[in-house]
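> run fold Fatty acid-binding protein DegV
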Amino acid sequence: MGYVELGLVTDTAADLSPRFLEEEAVGLVPIYVHLGGRRYKDWRELTPDALYQAIRAGAEPVTEPPGVEDFAEVYERYLQIYDRVLSLHVSGELSKTVDRAREAALKVAPTRIRVVDSGMVSAGLGAMVLRAVEMLRKGAEEEAVVREWERLKHSSLYFSVADLSHLARNGRLPRFGEVVGNLLGLRPILRIEKGHIRFLKVAREGAVPEVLARLVLEELQGKPARITIAHTDAKSEWIEGLKKSLEGALRLERGRITRSGATIAANVGLGAIAIHAYSIE
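> ok
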């Protein structure tokens, strides 16, 4: 049997829709969301709309990483088509997902599956998957894709949340952020750094888009860049304001806006907004 050389697998913390990933032949392993006494597979069994509505009604969802058997099922299926699999997942500092992936790889075919910790989440993880899809379409080798992922691990992902209780409940909140983020009229500005959530500063609520845009512009320093804005039903004027600030000041090579799925919304709550940026070299 002739194999296609390299397949890609990721998880639902990438905030990429199953339909898109299926079109690009990227395998998807859903993270579980516990809601109302039931366990759902993100995107497969629980849409963003359904979770957002449940949170508005007072639900307190929590997430659970996929099981080893969930990864094994996808790996076994993909190895019937591909000679090797690259499996890229949400930061191991934020979830046990990548650990489960490694266990499954050892069980199924350790010499044919390469599991990579993205050090990222949401828009950052999604950007890394999209970059790999683009590179493989152009004929890139496995090592070139992994090198690019290593570079993108150091890219910028800044975000702000409206309600810190979700991060606190899921054990992902920097201690200092818990104190200052709940001050009236202020919102915390956070960053993913080395796979961790790092508290940066507080900002007046109305200034959040401006602060996020300034952080990205200072970091990119005029380089051509790709941008993703991700949100959990953040204010539309914030999204448009952030978009316009960046379009006017950046050498924007590509940009997209995405609404986060249940995995992310369960951990950050509603009204969160994030921006991921990386330079093109």
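The longest strand covers residues 196-204.
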